[in-house]
Amino acid sequence: MKPSLIYLNDEVAAALREGRAVVALESTIITHGMPYPANLETARGVEAVVRDNGAVPATIAVVRGKIKVGLDDAELERLAAAKDVVKASGRDLAAIMVRGGSAGTTVSATMRIAALAGIGIFATGGVGGVHRGAEATFDISADLTELGQTGTTVVCAGVKSILDIAKTLEYLETQRVPVIAYQSDDFPAFYTRSSGLKADHRLDTPEEIAQAMLLHEQMGSGTGILVANPIPEADALDPAFIDGTIAAAVAEAEKRGIGRKELTPFLLARINELSQGRSLKANIALVRNNAALAARIAVAHAGSKREAA
């Protein structure tokens, strides 16, 4: 851990010091992923789910130039309601800190900060990936390269279904990132339980995934692990419906020339509008589901490390 860079709240610091389970949580879902106040309600709810499953939540953000690992409720509320908060990938952190800005951290930034803080597992909704048309635009998320060089396990509901999922899986293979589906042979597609593509591996218990984490670390692999946890069946959207909705949103973004960092927030907001709020409900459900699994893995991982010591 780099104490001059990172500010741990007391609860997270105590848990790490005592070897207890901690789950990192990103903040872009609060600042750019959902409208207010649904974002605040979701952030509080996700932290509660982590606690209910035996771990300590560590929501990560940049607050007035300082990297915070673990936010209190007042900080969560300010972040959720703020209009001047930017979206920070790993490459953006230093410049934002220098100017004293505040930022929601993406998957890549959260992975990097979690690794510096000594937190081995992180829960999010979906990770970024290879965008449709990337062969012309080269639009590939930094989340994938971060997974290839930072040893954090990321629990998600697959990659966002606005992306080219087949190319994303190919890129993860190139980056040497293990892709493990939880209790499924298929790789999920965020709003739906299957993308139609197979995952590299299937594991069926949090304990198995925790053991895989330990072995991956012991081999000095140097990469993260992507755990793909399908959205609960009751909350999944009809594939034909959501695919049509996504296609309409992507076409509108292209027509309006929206790209780079603005693309994903625009698409998620537009998909929510076109689906009359159904996609937002699904998003909240899958994030909570991922937080619960991540907490159970973190508890098993912490227990295994104590046994091995």
TrEMBL record:
Sites where the protein binds substrate: K87, V107, S141, A142, D143
Residues annotated as signal peptide: none
GO process terms (BP): nucleobase catabolic process
Record-listed E.C. numbers: 4.2.1.70
Keyword presence, Protease: no
Catalytic reaction annotation: D-ribose 5-phosphate + uracil = psi-UMP + H2O
Positions contributing to Mn(2+) binding: D139
Keywords on record: Glycosidase, Hydrolase, Lyase, Manganese, Metal-binding
Enzyme active site: E26 (proton donor), K160 (nucleophile)
Primary enzyme class: lyase
Swiss-Prot/TrEMBL cofactor(s): Mn(2+)
MF-aspect GO terms: hydrolase activity, acting on glycosyl bonds; metal ion binding; pseudouridylate synthase activity
InterPro entries in the record: Indigdn_synthA-like (IPR022830), PsuG (IPR007342)
Record note on cofactor: Binds 1 Mn(2+) ion per subunit.
Keyword Calcium assigned: no
Record GO cellular component, one term: cytoplasm
Sequence similarity: Belongs to the pseudouridine-5'-phosphate glycosidase family.
Quaternary assembly: Homotrimer.
PANTHER family: CARBOHYDRATE KINASE PFKB DOMAIN-CONTAINING PROTEIN, ZGC:136858
Function: Catalyzes the reversible cleavage of pseudouridine 5'-phosphate (PsiMP) to ribose 5-phosphate and uracil. Functions biologically in the cleavage direction, as part of a pseudouridine degradation pathway.
Name this protein carries in UniProt: Pseudouridine-5'-phosphate glycosidase
Organism: Mesorhizobium helmanticense
Gene name of the record: psuG
